[in-house]
Amino acid sequence: MIESRQASPTLRVFLAVGLFLAAPFSSFAAFAQQAAPSLPLLFDARERLARPDLSSLVRLRFLTSVDFPPFNFTDQNGKLAGFNVDLAREICSELEISDKCQIQAIPFADLKDALAASQGDAVIAGLAVTPELRRQFLFSRPYLMLPARFVRNLGAPLDGKTAAALSNHPVGVVKGTVHEAMLAAFFPALKAQAFDTKDALLAALKERKIDAAFADALQLSFWVSSPASDKCCALLDGPYLSEQFLGEGMTIMLRQKDSVLTSAIDHALATLSRNGRLQEIYLRYFPYGLY
Fold first, then answer.
1. Contact in structure between 188 and 21 (CB atoms under 8 Å)
2. What is the Cα–Cα distance from 20 to 202, expressed in whole angstroms?
3. Which residues pair with 253 in a beta bridge?
4. Rounded CA gap, 90 and 137, in Å?
């Protein structure tokens, strides 16, 4: 289940990582990509983002939290670690300002106010972009999209390897989530079965009370590869992306006055996306892939 770290039901997904058809199916092919370990490029190769002059920048203070693994957390040595932490360091390196960069962890609930009070310069912590926040802050371009996926029980006989094979099979989803709404919108002819919690959903799938489930790709990829699944299941088809249901993806939030810094971060993200360094960080923390 994807839950919000704010009002939007988008990004609070990873706190327990490690356990954790009215229209034809072809109509939705544009939403699905072939599964692969690579990270989709979010920047057009033909687009050129200028690199602003940051010579007058005194320092760049990234704010994050420690409750969002594998994006930001404290490791076994008590040091700040995670996808977002490594990405912040790469951004600073690409902009040649590593000596001016700092990364500080504070409680998640304090991030917005701390940025507004200039106690930091950029928030990289999985904040969901909302219209209200856009009125108060600037946001970088997305650097990671959070897709939805199907997962199937390997004991269920399916005639095919796409979502179309799930016709006439019970497909579970967590009640009241964006994934329930997304499943109904994309695949209205599937036999959806709602569960109260993610744990109840995964237990039913493992016990084959349902043949498949539809949920957050990150949670599913870790669960399928963990001892908790007992090798019962595998990802199927997708990924499925939808800004309407899943939001804009992972971004960096900055103050309204910092348009130059925002442009510099966009330049760095585009470069890291194209030269493969963003892919390296992705595979470091998501070896099983989301896509």
1. yes
2. 9
3. 123, 139
4. 23
Helix (H) or strand (E) holding 172: strand 170-174
Cα separation of 154 and 230, whole Å? Answer: 11
118 residue type, one letter:
S
Nearest Cα to Cα of residue 240 among 289, 283, 290, 173? 290
Q: Between β-strands 60-64 and 101-105, what pairing exists: parallel, antiparallel or unpaired?
A: parallel
Distance of alpha carbon 120 from alpha carbon 228, whole angstroms: 39
CA 42-43-44 angle, 5° bins: 125
- Say if residue 188 is preceded by a cis peptide, omega within 30 of 0: no
CB-based contacts of 16, cutoff 8 Å, min separation 6? none
Q: Please give the Cα distance from 40 to 53 (Å, whole number).
A: 29
| Between residues 15 and 139, the one the model is more confident about | 139
Instruction: Outline where 172-276 has alpha helix (H).
Output: 178-186, 198-206, 217-224, 243-246, 259-275
**173-212 pLDDT, tens per residue?**
999 999 999 999 999 999 999 999 999 999 999 999 999 9
Residue 65 has what pLDDT? 96
Q: What is the mean pLDDT of the chain?
A: 86
To which residue do tokens 């009215």 refer? Answer: 22
